[in-house]
Amino acid sequence: MGLQKEAEMNEDDKGLQEELLNLVSLLTGKDEKVILPSLVQLRIFIQTSTTSMTSVPKPLKYLRNSYGVLKTAQARLKCKESKAQFADILSVLAMAGDTSGLRECLKYCLQGTMHKPGDWGHEYVRQLEAEITEEWTDTPNEEEDEMKEKLLPLVKSIIEFDMQHNAEIQACDLCMEIDQLDLLDDHLNDTNFGRVCLYLGNCAGYSEEMERLHILKIVTNYYLRFNQYTRAMLVALQIPDSESVYKCLITCPNCATRKQLALLLARQQDRPLRKEYHGDDAKDIETILSNSQVNGHFQMLARELDILEPKHPEDIYKSWLETGGPRISEIHDSARANLASSYVSGFVHAGFGLDKLMANTEDCWVYKNKDHGMLAATASLGLIHLWDVDGGLVPIDKYLYTSDDIVKSGALLAMGLVNCGVRNECDPALALLSEYVLSDSQTLRIGAIMGLGLAYAGSRRSDVSDLLTGALTDQRSSMEIVSLAAIALGLVNVGSANSDVSHAILQKQLEFTPQEWSVTYSRFIPLALGLVYMGCRDMIATPSTALEVLPEPHRFASQTMLQICAYAGTGDVLIIQELLSICSEPVEGENSSSILENTPVPSSCDPKIPESLSTSTLQGTSTDANKEAKTKSACSLKNEGIYKDMGLPQAIASLGVGVVGLGEGKENARIFGQVGRYGSAAARRAVPLAMALNSLSDPEPALLDVLKKYSHDNDPEVAYNAIFALGLVGAGTNNARLATMLRQLAAYHAKNPSHLFLVRISQGLVHLGKGTLSLSPLHYASKVLDQTALAGLLVIMVACLDSTNLILGKSHYLMYCLTVAMEPRWLVTLDENMKTLPVSVRVGQAVDIIGKAGSPKSIAGGRVHTTPVLLAHGERAELVSDQYQPLSSVLEGFVILKEN
After folding, report:
1. pLDDT of 224-244, one tens digit each?
2. What would be one Gene Ontology cellular-component term for the protein (predicted)?
3. How far apart are CA 861 and CA 24, in angstroms?
4. Is the N or C terminus of the chain more exposed, i.e. has fewer CB atoms within 10 Å?
5. What's the rounded Cα separation, in Å, for the pair 107 and 104?
6. What's this model's pTM, rounded to 2 decimal places?
């Protein structure tokens, strides 16, 4: 075989092989005078050899078998210079030799001259990087200082080579592996800092918490160093770090760029700018941060798209297209149908200022509803006039003077909705609602407390918190009022870790009796505590310990809720694994229905015995005495609420998988499939909601098919949540396929009022803002999480864990918490004076360009539009011409353009 290969070699290769073997014989000889010239000759042969990308260089191939002999020859040399140069050669030859695990490439490099390792080629440098990483990782702690002193000079020369030869990614990898990112500082320049920062920023998402924060802070400082203020701001918002955010604003020298930074901040409702800004343009910045410009631009967008004309709910349902007999509206012309129409009209006309139901002065729509339906109908005015503080208060004001407390409560809630996401210096919401927070009427308190929570969501206002804390601790408050006050406190102080607020909520939770825990509203108290600590990660240790004194299953459920809020949107794999293990635990007594069927229930006890009664409680023979004992035990557990809540930790954990892994819909689909097939009944009920949370306003066909199957589930709670989840997934998309699917569901559930009500709600959500709004809490290329928007979504999702008693009961007004997450999915371009500036932009699907060489295109399949334009999920925009330069690196929301 060797002869055959030798025969295939051409004359040049044979000549090269002979010369190399001659040099080997000289190097292994006893004459040390010829060794140094021979090493120089061998170095030239290796460094000048050319090869293809897929083959080993010929000098290395021909010298592979001589590696062992050369090692022996080098070891016996006395001359230091010759020994060092010989070590350089051996370090390179170690790549071709069988040296796996020995790190001989690094060993001989350290013995050699270590002068410009890049001269030996990129592959040699890659090999050194790999072995340096292994050496750094495996060195014991006591030898760490010595190892650093030995390796750092070599590391610095490698990084210098990488940064000069378009290998920034490899340099970043090496620095992160050895935890020495500061070594990059001296080698950054105008041409390479962009790739370095982009790569480091994306690597941060795969690091543990402390390292992630460290990387993001370094990236923020790099961007500030090269005057990329908007990029620095977007990274600072990911931390989130109010100090870095403030630093970006005050160090920016340009007035127009500062306005752009304020526009980026205004989109985040949790107001991460905690310090007062006192620059020359402080008034302009404060105006931008108040979001007062949203309503005017939204009306302009509606005129551009020609969608100002209001629609009737029947135009959304399109009942005439539904199969299976007469129009459903004729069959179910009921209070529940009218209630659904109130919500649908509010969702469809959100922000438009006009609809067909509430605008009809001759035939007042409010009084076509019953009881709490009138509250929802009146509150829909707030949604219709969303963001219009000046114009929206006038049509609502007349309902504040009615003698009907339910209608008045709806008007109070409408006041809060109008102010949602907008800050007005007159504080109309606080002025109008504060006097009703401690009212003698429980109904009025509902509207006032919910209105305050929505109006000041994310503001962290201490005066609002004090007012709501008073409602929380008031002895006259019912469980419904207590839960709403807790929710409102959570919304106002989301992510603040405020010790006073958390103490008040925690104290109320610890005072609950078993009877109070049995009320379904009690589930909102742990949620409120979780909202206060949203995104705070390890800061939950103290409140979690305090929850240890609660009875089971409420202790476990509360701690799980606190954990999923603290790690919301982090994608923490360990937390997700922990939540999945909770979902896989069997709920005690879930298979005990056969025992319950034979257990007589007296009239004093609710005949509906929940499925999750523990078998250990009811074990025994079928004697009369045992039957009586079973009945008493069943009633006792029912009254204490243990029955209903036995599976609550599993439901919360199942929902938590979606909360923690927010934005990873496709990756989490398989996980949800397993829980949906094999999980407990409680865990299964949360699966559609968790799936929807991972794909808000992103109706992927595969996900729609899965949710459609769940909507026909035998468990009505699963079906309810699946139907509602379809609306969340398609929110504001006008998706024709989903609209058809919902019409088919409406026909299928024509005789089931509860199912049909949720189908109507979902139809309204699909046409949210006539297709202009989104519910997604992920902004700026899905990198920045709006915690306030997520908090509002979590309120409605926790309510859906008991849809029958909350959303389908009297607490359907909780659906207005979705308002916090509503946002136009647009791109609006402005000039430096904040006036609208229409330009041509190309819109297409975003492409991942991290680590790619050159200047790759960031979008694919682009279509040209004139701003303002709508952006679907996963779409990005770029300017068509070079006439203007955008001041924001991500073209979403409001972007200021500067003329080139």
Report:
1. 999 999 999 999 888 877 888
2. proteasome regulatory particle, base subcomplex
3. 59
4. N
5. 5
6. 0.85
